[in-house]
Specification:
It is a single chain. By secondary structure, this protein is mainly alpha-helical. The strands form two sheets. It has a three-stranded antiparallel β-sheet with strand order 3-4-5. The protein has a two-stranded antiparallel ribbon with strand order 1-2. Helix 1 runs parallel beside helix 3 and helix 3 packs antiparallel against helix 4. The longest helix is centred in the middle third of the chain and has 19 residues.
């Protein structure tokens, strides 16, 4: 790199680079971090090592890894993690004494290790408990309303149904829809008008036009 100009091995270059996305295939790889702060985590680890609440480096609490945990809930989990990092860095949320951090991590790792391998339903329960744990920390700060209206129980039920459908019908599970738990206006469940395998439309407009009459 030369400022915002990137030089490639073949001698070519590109100007005005805004960001570099380093694709690792879902594998943890942080060559840009100092070795003493570099997270080493297998792709099948749900609870990453060395991180308090799966976020904060135990030996350097102002170093945060976001999205390092193996996840199923995705965006609600990301929202909770980013909110916690924000409130910790702003000194709105207080953590227990540092000697309790490793003990907390060990308890989460014990739960992970006790899981039946590849039992995704138990994984959903573990992750939901983790999200509730983060939410409880956030709510120790009176001004925090992060995901205060999010229905965790309903999310758990839908996610389990989704993966159960996926396990029993790999080709047909995409044809099953669910009621929204985040929108109070659009909660009506709509059945697909054409099976996924037969639906060859490429544009969002073409895809949605068949549903608008049903809403």
């Amino acid at each position: 790199m030369e400022g915002r100009k990137a030089h490639f091995k073949d001698g070519s270059s590109a100007d005005n680079i805004d960001a570099i996305i380093f694709c690792t295939g879902y594998r943890h790889f942080y060559p840009f971090m100092a070795k003493r702060f570099r997270l080493h985590c297998d792709v099948d680890e749900i609870i990453p090592p060395s991180l308090y609440k799966s976020i904060f480096w135990i030996d350097q609490p102002y170093l945060a890894y976001l999205g390092a945990t193996r996840y199923l809930y995705t965006f609600p989990l990301f929202a909770l993690q980013t909110a916690l990092v924000r409130d910790v860095f702003l000194d709105n949320v207080k953590f227990p004494e540092k000697d309790q951090w490793q003990a907390d991590l060990n308890e989460w790792k014990k739960r992970e290790e006790a899981m039946v391998p590849f039992n995704i339903l138990v994984w959903i329960d573990l992750e939901l408990d983790y999200m509730r744990d983060i939410l409880a920390l956030l709510h120790t700060h009176d001004g925090n309303q992060s995901l205060s209206n999010f229905d965790f129980d309903k999310a758990q039920k839908i996610l389990k149904e989704h993966f159960d459908n996926k396990l029993h019908d790999m080709l047909g599970y995409r044809d099953i829809s669910y009621e929204s738990i985040s929108s109070t206006e659009n909660t009506k469940l709509i059945h697909v008008y054409k099976p996924w395998l037969e639906n060859m439309v490429d544009s969002i407009e073409s895809f949605l036009i068949n549903y608008r009459e049903k809403l």
